[in-house]
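WARN  no MSA supplied for this record, continuing single-sequence
INFO  ligand: uridine-5'-diphosphate-xylopyranose
INFO  echoing inputs
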Amino acid sequence: MALRITVIGTGYLGATHAAAMAELGFEVLGLDVVPEKIALLSTGRVPMYEPGLEELLTRHVAGLEGSTGRLRFTTSWEEIAEFGDVHFVCVNTPQKHGEYACDMSYVDAAFSSLAPLLTRPALVVGKSTVPVGSAARLARLVAELAPGEVELAWNPEFLREGFAVEDTLHPDRIVVGVASERAEKLLREVYATPVGEGTPFVVTDYPTAELVKTSANSFLATKISFINAMAEVCEAAGGDVQKLAEAIGYDERIGAKFLRAGIGFGGGCLPKDIRAFMARAGELGVDQALTFLREVDSINMRRRGHMVELAREALGGAFLGKRVAVLGAAFKPDSDDVRDSPALNVAGQIHLQGGQVTVYDPKAMANARRLFPTLGYADSARDAVRGADVVLHLTEWREFRDLDPAELGRETAARIMLDGRNALDPVKWREAGWTYRAMGRPAA
Ligand code: UDX
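INFO  complex generated
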């Protein structure tokens, strides 16, 4: 009989994983402790903007017209325990308030709720990003609490927001940390389709699987901070960081991706993952091995302040009484996520220094309003720039790349564009009479 799969936690990761498992042909039951989320998911909808996810859910959620009926949701731990052969734990591990370490309370609660109910043989698979050593600890917990024959595996997830569906159905690689051949066999069965299509399947132990995730995110964060450090040097020396990135990116050992200089990385993963990694290294007595990540973090945070300074300079030295239009609020395009958003951080700093800030984002307005209720908001880019003394481009949505600079210029008080993402075409903006400045590039 085909394996039955459960997914615990239905945020970005869990909702996408549940839908993807149904797409692969499995019967899936998803659980969340928030009843409103379950009610929404049961109608095929999600509480966030994630391209393609609602279409995938609608194709499989039971009770919806024309669906396969393979995907259902519940709030009942008993139902989950009774249903599943393989349980994926997809709850989040946010940064602890005021600390570097991550908060494991949701993971711990999920394992403690599920394990005592597991009376029949099952594999529990952790997908959350956790400090190395957690899987071994949770394996002991499961062995202690579960009445049935239950094993643990760790299977980190590498999906990017905005590409969650694509990354889950067609991952670059699948990594599994296992303690037995039986666990490996079960996971090979779960992932037979992508592996059959050529996705590499890496089998390892618990700590290595956990570390693959944190080290991959640390590498990506380092790459971004590296190019941002080069942007600082380029600005001082009169160089052009975009050309530099293009040129070094042709070297296959370096690669062209993740070399876009600008106001740096944000979101719910990279910033908190590198901090939690440093905290864990400290506990393991190898904090020196990761001191470079402190530098990666501080280069990244410096970018936001630098953007504020560029804006101040463009306004003649002070924000007071000046109108500042901010294009973008999400931490990156194709997402409505504003967690640790560099764009909103810059907007907030300028607001605190007396600037009159108006923000527009194609998808993240509601979340931005909730987080920064004192900023001004507009319903379109055009409305946001009306009467502006300076325009800041802080999240590189396609909509902003497609703007007509001549048309927009007629709305503003001054044609000054500061591109915090190096994503607009300087020639196009300058030809339309704008003063265009980007981070890490010559002024004109
Ligand atoms: C990241 C990892 O990419 C993913 O593999 C992991 O599972 C979760 O964390 P995500 O947070 O969705 O995914 O966003 P990502 O696309 O990695 O971008 C992170 C941040 O880096 C964004 O704020 C983005 O604007 C910024 N960034 C990215 C740059 O500043 N420059 C770049 O060249 C690339």
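The two ends are 66 Å apart (CA to CA).
INFO  checksum written, moving to next record
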